[in-house]
Amino acid sequence: MHQKLPDTIPATLFAARADAIADAARELALAGWTPATSSNFSMRVDADHAAITISGRDKGKLGRDDIMLVDMQGLAVGTDARPSAETALHTQVYRRWPEAQVVLHTHSRTQSVASRLFAQDGAVRLEGWELQKAITGHTTHESVLEIPVFPNTQHMPELVERVDAWLDAGKPLAAYLINGHGIYTWGRDMAEARRHLEALEFLLGCELDLRAYS
Ligand SMILES: CSC[C@@H](O)[C@@H](O)C(=O)COP(=O)(O)O
Ligand SMILES: [Zn+2]
């Protein structure tokens, strides 16, 4: 066990979060959405900490020892393990949405291709799809759901800044794509985050098909 927990976090709580992350990751890997160790997953543990995948692990084969604790600045807590290279994007979600409990990031083929195709528009504009209602806050297919596509970079502060700029402009945000990379989405629990991820995978696939057939 590499993880020493602060006194305020019961071992059972951390274990439950780690198991929930590993279970979700295994299922998403089976769907083919986490190729070649890509993707990362996290869950809030308390107001000041999140459990997140250790960098570079095979997301289809995670166990409790592949999950670690970070603070809300993305720094490791109680372990020498290296958190996901994209930890800053997770902790940003927890800071900006106090109700967010889960952040999911995957690299499916559909997400990757859609991010390249729509990068020039800066966003994917979803309208007219019944499945938009799977995104919390959307009650009709007539609503518009805009998923921004941010340029890829290995420098996380740059991405954090782009997300902050989008939110500070007052635009709604349920998820975002990173060009040539993948998707980030989140939820108030694992079920909501999974529903968002699955709906967006489906909707992006539909948008790609529309372009292929027209
Ligand atoms: C294996 S390439 C993908 C990585 O560069 C990254 O984008 C990713 O999703 C996984 O990084 P990780 O540090 O394991 O969380
Ligand atoms: Zn990634």
TrEMBL record:
User: Has the keyword Manganese been applied to this entry?
Assistant: no
Q: Which residues are recorded as binding Zn(2+)?
A: H105, H107
EC number(s) stated in the UniProt entry for this protein: 4.2.1.109
Specify the pathway.
Answer: Amino-acid biosynthesis; L-methionine biosynthesis via salvage pathway; L-methionine from S-methyl-5-thio-alpha-D-ribose 1-phosphate: step 2/6
Residues in Class II aldolase/adducin N-terminal domain copies: 19-208
Tell me the GO molecular function terms.
Answer: methylthioribulose 1-phosphate dehydratase activity
Per UniProt, the enzyme's principal EC class comes to: lyase
Q: How is the cofactor bound?
A: Binds 1 zinc ion per subunit.
Catalysed reaction per UniProt? 5-(methylsulfanyl)-D-ribulose 1-phosphate = 5-methylsulfanyl-2,3-dioxopentyl phosphate + H2O
Q: Which residues form a coiled coil?
A: none
Q: Which cofactor does it need?
A: Zn(2+)
Keyword field contains Lyase:
yes
The membrane spanning regions, by residue number, are: none
Q: What does this protein do?
A: Catalyzes the dehydration of methylthioribulose-1-phosphate (MTRu-1-P) into 2,3-diketo-5-methylthiopentyl-1-phosphate (DK-MTP-1-P).
Spell out the protein name for this chain.
Methylthioribulose-1-phosphate dehydratase
Q: Which organism is it from?
A: Dyella agri
